């Protein structure tokens, strides 16, 4: 029986993709990744638009987690403390670019019935797909490393747990993933949305305490030529833009949209693409709100007080209490950071599973996959923390972002190429205007990441 159409046999006409949609692939679509969650969330076939949309809300919020990781926190803190509200436009622009690329992930997952990892496996020979798999695994390990460090810093700020111990404690989050998976995918989505709500609430309270200049905030979302006149401002703008898209998010989103049982007809898939794109766009707007809140908080506190060189997370935490005259603000900052780390744990686990199953068609127990990935991230974090202390941990966080930047082209370029191919996508091929916009977006992000990597390598 087909998972999306339980009443029809697998070879019935409603479940056979049009021949035109298959000519671009080297082989037929295999078993889906995340098989235990595939098409398990029911969708509304009839009813109001809001009722239909409600069934698709969820995957976008898991994707949004990747746009507010500790690496993004660092660039937003640095931009706000140094230049006030001026870089809010850059945060807005980066979010629009992310919406474009994530919409392609939705189109690929629903229209082609493949996540990005499966699409690479079914499009390229093994001598190409295996290096792409290795690149994706490196990106996930780097992502996990950032989560380990961010969570450990959050534990240190909240409970004064030494970073070395905090890094080791993060290994226990594997049990959180297992517990949530046992209840179903909607529980995972619910946990992530709850954590995002806590993060948003924490920053809302901090911003209310900071009392920013709202007129300047609104002006900050408008473009300014100062970015090109000031080299330091330009560099921070490049940092915010370049760290926008995480490679694992592209694999993750194209797999998560298939957790919905939307049906197999062309009309049902078109509607699913529309609703899932709305979901991700709403979620990414929430990510923009949180990232902008970090920058606004930095501008209203550090920049206003003349502290223009704040970039480290522990440094930002320490300055909040004396600047705002309250011990509540730094506590909320630490809680938000810890919630961010817990959320990222879930998305890294799922993306790792999608990548391994999609590229290799290899299925292992989720707890084993999670434990191996987390151990690979924990070992360097523990060694560096013990050897050189907390400052080196911050440097390791920066290095993880550089590694992610290096892997980005190997995910973005195939995504744009697949969704632009009528032979692969059939009636769900991306419109020409969207392909052009996505190609320009990909070129800009890759160029900015290349510059950031070069600056890092050249010191």
Automatic annotation (TrEMBL):
<dbReference type="GO" id="GO:0005886">
    <property type="term" value="C:plasma membrane"/>
</dbReference>
<dbReference type="GO" id="GO:0015086">
    <property type="term" value="F:cadmium ion transmembrane transporter activity"/>
</dbReference>
<feature type="transmembrane region" description="Helical">
    <location>
        <begin position="233"/>
        <end position="252"/>
    </location>
</feature>
<feature type="transmembrane region" description="Helical">
    <location>
        <begin position="83"/>
        <end position="110"/>
    </location>
</feature>
<keyword id="KW-0813">Transport</keyword>
<feature type="transmembrane region" description="Helical">
    <location>
        <begin position="433"/>
        <end position="454"/>
    </location>
</feature>
<dbReference type="GO" id="GO:0015293">
    <property type="term" value="F:symporter activity"/>
</dbReference>
<feature type="transmembrane region" description="Helical">
    <location>
        <begin position="396"/>
        <end position="421"/>
    </location>
</feature>
<feature type="transmembrane region" description="Helical">
    <location>
        <begin position="49"/>
        <end position="68"/>
    </location>
</feature>
<feature type="transmembrane region" description="Helical">
    <location>
        <begin position="319"/>
        <end position="350"/>
    </location>
</feature>
<keyword id="KW-0812">Transmembrane</keyword>
<feature type="transmembrane region" description="Helical">
    <location>
        <begin position="159"/>
        <end position="180"/>
    </location>
</feature>
<keyword id="KW-0406">Ion transport</keyword>
<keyword id="KW-1003">Cell membrane</keyword>
<feature type="transmembrane region" description="Helical">
    <location>
        <begin position="371"/>
        <end position="390"/>
    </location>
</feature>
<dbReference type="GO" id="GO:0034755">
    <property type="term" value="P:iron ion transmembrane transport"/>
</dbReference>
<dbReference type="Pfam" id="PF01566">
    <property type="entry name" value="Nramp"/>
</dbReference>
<protein>
    <recommendedName>
        <fullName>Divalent metal cation transporter MntH</fullName>
    </recommendedName>
</protein>
<keyword id="KW-0769">Symport</keyword>
<feature type="transmembrane region" description="Helical">
    <location>
        <begin position="273"/>
        <end position="299"/>
    </location>
</feature>
<keyword id="KW-1133">Transmembrane helix</keyword>
<dbReference type="InterPro" id="IPR001046">
    <property type="entry name" value="NRAMP_fam"/>
</dbReference>
<dbReference type="GO" id="GO:0046872">
    <property type="term" value="F:metal ion binding"/>
</dbReference>
<comment type="similarity">
    <text>Belongs to the NRAMP family.</text>
</comment>
<feature type="transmembrane region" description="Helical">
    <location>
        <begin position="130"/>
        <end position="153"/>
    </location>
</feature>
<dbReference type="GO" id="GO:0005384">
    <property type="term" value="F:manganese ion transmembrane transporter activity"/>
</dbReference>
<keyword id="KW-0472">Membrane</keyword>
<feature type="transmembrane region" description="Helical">
    <location>
        <begin position="187"/>
        <end position="209"/>
    </location>
</feature>
<comment type="function">
    <text>H(+)-stimulated, divalent metal cation uptake system.</text>
</comment>
């Amino acid at each position: 029986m087909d998972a999306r159409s339980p009443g029809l046999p697998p070879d019935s006409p409603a479940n056979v993709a049009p021949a035109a949609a298959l000519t671009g692939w080297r082989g037929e679509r295999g078993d889906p990744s995340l098989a235990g969650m595939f098409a398990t969330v029911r969708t509304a076939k009839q009813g109001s638009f809001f009722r239909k949309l409600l069934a698709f809300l969820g995957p976008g919020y898991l994707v949004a987690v990747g746009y507010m990781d500790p690496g993004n926190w660092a660039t937003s803190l640095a931009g706000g403390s140094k230049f006030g509200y001026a870089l809010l436009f850059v945060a807005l622009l980066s979010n629009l670019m992310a919406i474009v690329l994530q919409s392609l992930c939705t189109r690929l997952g629903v229209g082609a019935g493949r996540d990005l990892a499966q699409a690479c496996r079914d499009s390229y020979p093994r001598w190409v797909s295996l290096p792409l798999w290795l690149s994706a695994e490196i990106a996930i390990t780097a992502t996990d490393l950032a989560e380990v460090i961010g969570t450990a810093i959050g534990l240190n700020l909240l409970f004064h747990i030494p970073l070395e111990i905090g890094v080791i404690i993060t290994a226990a989050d594997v049990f959180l993933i297992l517990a949530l998976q046992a209840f179903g995918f909607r529980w995972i989505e619910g946990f992530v949305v709850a954590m995002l709500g806590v993060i948003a609430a924490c920053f809302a309270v901090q911003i209310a305490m900071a009392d920013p200049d709202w007129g300047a905030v609104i002006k900050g979302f408008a473009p300014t030529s100062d970015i090109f006149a000031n080299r330091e401002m330009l560099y921070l703008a490049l940092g915010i833009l370049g760290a926008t898209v995480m490679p694992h998010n592209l694999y993750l989103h194209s797999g998560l949209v298939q957790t919905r049982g939307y049906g197999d007809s062309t009309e049902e898939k078109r509607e699913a693409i529309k609703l899932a794109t709305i979901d991700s766009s709403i979620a990414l707007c929430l990510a923009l709100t949180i990232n902008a809140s970090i920058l606004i908080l930095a501008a209203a506190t550090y920049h206003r007080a003349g502290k223009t060189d704040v970039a480290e997370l522990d440094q930002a935490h320490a300055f909040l209490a004396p600047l705002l005259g309250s011990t509540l603000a730094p506590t909320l900052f630490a809680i938000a950071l810890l919630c961010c780390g817990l959320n990222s744990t879930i998305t890294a686990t799922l993306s790792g599973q999608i990548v391994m199953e999609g590229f290799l068609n290899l299925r292992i127990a989720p707890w084993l996959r999670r434990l191996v990935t987390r151990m690979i991230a924990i070992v360097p974090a523990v060694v560096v923390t013990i050897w050189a202390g907390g400052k080196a941990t911050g440097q390791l966080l920066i290095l993880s972002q550089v590694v992610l930047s290096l892997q980005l082209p190997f995910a973005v370029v195939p995504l744009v190429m697949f969704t632009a191919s009528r032979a692969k996508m059939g009636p769900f091929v991306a419109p020409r205007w969207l392909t052009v916009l996505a190609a320009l977006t990909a070129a800009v992000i890759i160029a900015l990441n290349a510059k950031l990597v070069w600056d890092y390598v050249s010191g």
